[in-house]
Amino acid sequence: MHLIVVTPQMRAVQTQLPFISAVQHEDHLVAQFGSGLSRIDIYRP
Q1: How many CB atoms lie within 10 A of CB 32?
Q2: pTM to 2 decimals?
Q3: Which domain range does residue 19 map to?
Q4: Is the four-CA dihedral 8, 27, 31, 36 of positive or negative sign?
């Protein structure tokens, strides 16, 4: 199983890393840690 971790730093530059937007829209969110701007999301393809 592969997991994708999206950190606040990755979200801050997501216009330069288009795969981050794709992950957030196409994959399944399985866990979140924290809240607001410091949130870390874990996705499963």
Answers
A1: 11
A2: 0.82
A3: 4-44
A4: positive
d(CA 1, CA 44): 8
- Beta strand pairing call for 40-44 and 4-6: antiparallel
Give the pLDDT score at 20: 87
Torsion angle of the four alpha carbons 21, 22, 25, 30, in this order, in degrees rounded to the nearest 10: -90
Number of domains in the chain: 1
Structure token pair of residue 17: 């890393």
Residues 28-44: pLDDT tens digits? 999 999 999 999 999 99
Q: Which of 32, 38, 33 is nearest to 9 (CA)?
A: 38
Tell me what percent of the residues of the chain surpass a pLDDT of 90.
67
